[in-house]
Design goal:
The chain is α/β, with parallel strands linked by helices and 203 residues long. It has 6 helices and 7 strands. Strands 2-1-3-6-7 form a 5-stranded parallel beta sheet, sandwiched between helices. The protein has a two-stranded antiparallel ribbon with strand order 4-5.
């Protein structure tokens, strides 16, 4: 991956929410980042499993002021969000587990509540009117064929929610179906799709 900080181009961060390094999600995110780097982007990949992220306790402390607020939990989440906020584009990857994104990525999603606003005086959250400032590509995978899983499972919808919380707007998605746990290589079709998405992120 491109690690030269002198490169003048967008900063693209890939978030891998899979439990498997070098698995299908990891490889797809890497392909997208590599394609973005070909167009001059600086790229970085972050594995959620390597981050110390505690579960949200729903205390609502972080929701009492608009914009990102401080969480009472002391872990890696604040520094991770600092890095994400400095990016121009995101790749968000998570596999399907029980019909939606896996628990590792869900835990991360729940902690992005710090961008919300729900003061104690309001009966409901106050929706932000801020427009997204970043591009995002969504990546998921399932054992079921993609064309069937799209109708029965919710990962793309959930990843869109995550993208929104992180101030980004999806420009495309890659759903890899019929995954074989013993084979993490991308098909020619998925490889080409990943390249197209990476190029779009960098332009």
């Amino acid at each position: 991956m491109n690690s030269d900080r002198t490169v003048i181009g967008p900063n693209v961060i890939g978030i891998v929410g899979s439990y498997r390094k070098h698995g299908v999600i990891d490889n797809a995110v890497s392909e997208i980042l590599a394609a973005a780097a070909q167009k001059g982007a600086h790229t970085e990949k972050i594995y959620l499993q390597d981050q110390h992220i505690e579960f949200c306790t729903n205390c609502r402390h972080c929701l009492q002021a608009p914009g990102r607020s401080e969480c009472l939990l002391k872990d890696d989440m604040a520094s991770l969000l600092d890095r994400i906020e400095a990016a121009d584009a995101l790749v968000l990857g998570a596999p399907v587990n029980f019909g939606d994104i896996n628990a590792l990525t869900r835990k991360f999603l729940e902690r992005t509540v710090c961008y919300g606003y729900w003061p104690w005086t309001s009966p409901a959250p106050i929706r932000s009117t801020a427009k997204p400032t970043k591009k995002a590509v969504l990546v998921t995978s399932s054992a079921a064929p993609g064309f069937i899983a799209r109708w029965l499972m919710a990962p793309i919808k959930t990843l869109k929610e995550l993208a929104s919380m992180l101030g980004s707007k999806p420009i495309g998605a890659l759903w890899i179906g019929m995954v074989d746990p013993k084979d993490s290589t991308l098909s020619t079709r998925n490889h080409h799709r990943a390249q197209q998405l990476g190029h779009r992120l960098a332009t």
